[in-house]
Design brief:
two-stranded antiparallel sheet, globular, 3-stranded antiparallel beta sheet, single chain, about 90 residues, alpha+beta
């Protein structure tokens, strides 16, 4: 049986399969982007693919605290689009 990679959501603190999460990355130039491959270099944070979780992350600025950089509104919109398209 193949091992399923598990990661922790920074909002809910749940251990979930990597495919159920979205990875947001801050690179060494402090540029924030979505990492759909899961292999981009930089500091990463995982968030559950759930609109309510995204709202909590945005209100409490959880991603900004974890990645130690301000997150542009466009990143939140991209995450919302990915969640809605699944």
């Amino acid at each position: 049986m193949k091992k399923i990679p598990m990661r922790r959501c920074v909002v809910t603190r749940e251990q979930l399969p990597k495919k159920d999460l979205i990875r947001i990355v801050r690179n060494k130039d402090n540029v924030v982007s979505l990492d759909l491959t899961g292999k981009a270099n930089g500091r990463g944070a995982y968030i559950k693919k759930d609109l309510s979780v995204l709202e909590i992350a945005q209100k409490k600025k959880i991603l900004e605290k974890v990645l130690e950089v301000s997150i542009p509104q466009a990143i939140y919109e991209e995450i919302k689009d990915i969640i809605n398209n699944e």
